[in-house]
């Protein structure tokens, strides 16, 4: 099992080193969703320390997504995404406080929807030379 964790760590590190800015945001979405899924499992087995840690990591990642926003160039869309990310952070705190798998499902759904839109513009970003 330790070897598997080491491999995953090296694989993640390599993905990050080789990634462009667009791909880094995709990796942040993946990381947040992974931690939310793992937190749901920790709630189900009553491991509240693990749940706290994982939700805390998800909050940090969503904060990172907020930092990536360029409100000058992104205009109204960036402002709306910032508000949505803020809502997601609040809901993660609620999920943590109430041990709520349902709230984590809500947050995961929102992140998946944003991630899908982000992945949908990949071709435009590459074509415009913005990566």
What does this structure look like?
It is a single chain. With 131 residues, the chain is mainly α. 89% of the residues lie in helices and 0% in strands. It has six helices and no strands. Helix 4 packs antiparallel against helix 5 (101-120). It is elongated and about 50 Å long.
Give the SSE map.
Blueprint (H helix, E strand, L loop, with lengths): L1 H17 L2 H24 L3 H21 L2 H28 L2 H20 L1 H6 L4
Helix pairs in contact: 2-3, 2-5, 3-4, 4-5
Category from helices, strands and their pairing: mainly alpha
CATH topology: Four Helix Bundle (Hemerythrin (Met), subunit A)
Strand content: under 5%
Low-confidence stretches: 2-14
Q: CATH-wise, what's the superfamily? A: Flagellar protein FliS
Globally, the shape reads elongated
Short description:
The chain is mainly alpha-helical and 131 residues long.
Essential attributes:
single chain, 131 residues, mainly alpha, Four Helix Bundle (Hemerythrin (Met), subunit A), 6 helices, 0% strand, elongated, disordered N terminus
């Amino acid at each position: 099992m330790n070897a598997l964790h080491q491999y995953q760590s090296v694989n993640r590190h390599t993905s990050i080193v080789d990634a462009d800015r667009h791909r880094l945001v995709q990796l942040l979405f993946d990381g947040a969703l992974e931690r939310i899924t793992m937190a749901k499992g920790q709630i189900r087995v009553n491991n509240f320390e693990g749940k706290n840690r994982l939700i805390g990591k998800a909050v940090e990642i969503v904060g990172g997504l907020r930092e990536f926003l360029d409100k000058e160039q992104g205009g109204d869309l960036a402002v709306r995404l910032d508000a949505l990310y803020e809502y997601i952070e609040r809901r993660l705190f609620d999920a943590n406080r109430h041990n709520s798998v349902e709230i984590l499902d809500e947050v995961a759904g929102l992140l998946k929807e944003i991630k899908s839109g982000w992945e949908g513009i990949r071709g435009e970003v590459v074509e415009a030379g913005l990566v």
